[in-house]
Structures are given as C-alpha cells and as structure tokens.
Request: fold
Amino acid sequence: MITGIGTLTNVATVLLGAGLGVLLGHRLPERTRDVVTDALGLVTLLIAGTSAWSVLDPVLADAVGSSAPMLIVLGSLLIGGIAGSLLRLETRVESLGGWLQRRLASGASSAERHRFVEGFVASSLLFCTGPLTILGSLSDGLGNGADQLFLKATLDGFAAIAFAASFGWGVAASALTVLVIQGGLTIVGVVLGDVLPDAHLAALTATGGLLLVGVALRLLRIREIPVADLLPALLVAPLLVALVGALQ
Reply:
C-alpha cells in the first residue's frame, strides 16, 4: 500500500463531507443548525471523556507510579499552554483561517467571516487532536497499513457533514490542516521506525482528550478556550512520561 494514502483519503472525505454539509445547511433554519452544533459539542465531549480516561491506564501507572499520571497531564497542559501562548498558536490558526476565508470566500460579511474562521478552527482541532491522528499517521509511515486512518477518514467525513451544515466552507478549509498535520506525522513515522510505547501513548491520549473537552466547550458556546495554544501539550506529555519513568 502507498505510504500516505490514509491521509489523502482523509482529506478527500473531509472535502466531500463539507460539500454535502454546505448543500444541506442552506436548507436548514438557523435554529436547526444551532441544534446540530450542540449535538456535535455533546458527542465531542463524549469522545473527549473516553480519551481522557486513559490517564487511569495501568500501563501508565506502572511506568511512572500510581500518583504521577494526573500530574503528568497537568504538567503537559501547563508547559504546553505556556509554550503555545508565547508562540501565539491560537492567533496564528485564526489568522490562517481568516487568510483562507479571504482567498476562498472574499466579499463575505463580518458574521460570515467569523463563521468561516470558527468552522475552520473547531474542525481542524477536532480532526487533528485525537489519538487516531497520531497512531494512524505513524502506523502509515511505518508501513503497517492505513487501516486506522481509513476509519478516521470515515468518521471525519460524517463529522464534516454536520459541521459544515452549521459553519459552512470553513470546515472544507480544515482539510489543509489535516493534510499538513497527518502528512507530517506520516513522515515522522517513516523516519522514526518505531511506535510510541504504550505508557507514552496513554499520556498523550489523555492529554488529547482534555484538549477535545476544550473543543466541546467552544461548540457548546460555554467558553472560548484557546485550544490551539494548548496543542504543544501533546508533545510534552510523552516527554514527561519518559523523564518521570527514567527517575523511577
């Protein structure tokens, strides 16, 4: 199987789902689109909870001690959040969304521009912070097949339909994020030659789950958490596991 085919399939399903969602969304009243967004927020919260539960994985506790997993996740979010804030990742992601909006949908009103950017940011974060993004991309790069990315592509396609019905073409623009992030991780897999140990993966999955909680809170219009600023936490989590494990 061709390396990278999983990411290309994922990009195609996001674009296809977004196109169908836009066609459907124009036929739905605003109240119905709000209900769809709320439903997406609740489902995202469910996915986030199942991912965050990995903090209780026995493999992680064995590697770092029973009292360390929560602290590792906390430390990952704090260190990652500080780094992301200093790098202004949230602002940069929003700026990218605004640039894409001007390129793809110039002449739109201020409300439509905000809707485009919010759709781009929310869908990019949802499609690129889950464990399947990392595992599937690394597995594809290692030559172990793209089955996980094919599953993710199917899920993302259906999610893109629902997202685009509420947010419009900003969701289609997130295909660029999927291409860059998953394509980059696939290349890392080619270079790495091995997968993350289970303990490192558990910490990364738990941290990613909390980031998805932030995405859910945005979708539910509870709080605009700058999730993009927290993305470096995904890199910090396995590093902290390795550091703490070495000190055991």
